[in-house]
């Protein structure tokens, strides 16, 4: 995604989710703490909004406005073997 038009096209296709819900509005409001799920180059990225910008700025500033949470390790089969999981 190189620009706003590319992002608007992804939203129109239903490819973007905000807090696990598909959105079809490119003008949807984001709030701090919202989680975005979006396809990027054949993978899925999950981003959490950390702050909102006061103005449009360079990409280096924009990177500070979100946290990539897609790198968080997923639940493994080993967790299912733990005593806490079995007692639930």
Describe the structure.
This protein has 88 residues and is α+β, with helices and mostly antiparallel strands. The chain contains four helices and five strands. It has a five-stranded antiparallel beta sheet, with no helix packed on it. A hairpin with a 2-residue loop joins strand 1 and strand 2. The radius of gyration is 16 Å and the shape is globular. The C terminus is likely disordered.
Offer a few descriptive terms.
disordered C terminus, 25% helix, 5 strands, 88 residues, alpha+beta, 5-stranded antiparallel beta sheet, single chain
Q: Percent range for helical residues?
A: 25-40%
Low-confidence segments: 76-88
**Biggest β-sheet, characterized?**
5 strands, antiparallel
Which percent range describes the beta-strand content?
A: 15-25%
On the 0 to 100 scale, the average pLDDT is 82
Distance between the termini: 43 Å
Overall, the morphology is: globular
Number of helices: 4
The spatial strand order of the largest sheet comes to 2-1-3-4-5
Structural class: alpha+beta
Total count of strands? 5
Oligomer: single chain
Radius of gyration based on Cα positions: 16 Å
Order of helices and strands: HEEEEHEHH
Question: What's the SSE blueprint?
Answer:
Layout lengths: L3 H9 L4 E2 L2 E2 L12 E6 L2 E7 L9 H4 L3 E3 L8 H4 L2 H5 L1
Antiparallel strand pairs: 1-2, 1-3, 3-4, 4-5
